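thought: fold this chain, then report.
action: predict
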Amino acid sequence: MGEDHYFSASPASAENLRRIRVTLAGRDLEVTTAGGVFSPAHVDDGTAVLLANTPPPPPGGNLLDLGCGWGPIALTLAMDAPHATVWAVDVNERALDLVRRNADALGLQNINAALPSDVPGDVVFRTIRSNPPIRVGKNVLHGLMEQWIPRLDERSDAWLVVQRNLGSDSLQRWLAATFDRGYSVHRAATGRGFRVLKVRRHGTPPTAAIPLP
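observation:
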């Protein structure tokens, strides 16, 4: 595929639409995938581990699937929380088109498939679920975390799945050091060589105490 990666904005490779059978939210489904997106042949192992080791999403509010690909996490959130608004965010336009196709085919009207720049700045999230694009490189990955984790609502959680041999433990340490005020970070689960990391926002970081006169 040369320089055409699943995190390319506009993949140059042939679309090659295909239909695959998957199980999401306890339902056996047929969805559409394509070339030039992440894991077009099946639900990848990391996403499967994440979906198996996260609690039901909040029933309402805004929920975020960061790096949505063709949509297995976003579709699951939308089925599990039909009264919530699910933001499926990706830089890959083809992936966003697939999410829209799949949401329409499944009758899910609570998914917004959007570029990062199209998410209104005042939207905060009751949960973030992500199989982040580790292969974009550490600096870009850290930038994604710094951009989106602060948009968690108070007393809300981000759940991230990362392959152990691709740096899950170092990412956990970086998250704990970066989000050290008003947040907690811990490893919530392991499976198939992946770690599920949980970042909880406890509340607005306290302001410095004002000395008494």
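thought: worth noting. The helical segments are 45-52, 72-80, 93-105, 138-148, 168-178.
final: tokens above.
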